[in-house]
Amino acid sequence: MVKLVGEKDAKKKRKAMLIGLDYRITHHT
After folding, report:
1. Rounded Cα gap, residues 25 and 5, in angstroms
2. What is the largest distance, in Å, between two alpha-carbon atoms of the chain?
3. What 3-state class would DSSP assign to 26?
4. Residue ranges of the domains in the chain?
């Protein structure tokens, strides 16, 4: 695995998770 690609993927997943959580909180109240 390429380190940069792994970091990018991890950042994307983390961002997606944060956005998903934020969306759930804002739209599930």
Report:
1. 30
2. 40
3. helix
4. 1-29
pLDDT of residue 5: 79
pTM strictly above 0.85: no
Question: What pLDDT, on a 0 to 100 scale, did the predictor assign at position 28?
Answer: 64
Alpha-carbon gap, residue 16 to 25, rounded angstroms: 14
Q: Which residues does the chain have with pLDDT short of 70?
A: 1-2, 28-29
Cα separation of 28 and 2, whole Å?
Answer: 38
**Which tokens is 7 given?**
């970091």
Structure token pair of residue 8: 């990018």
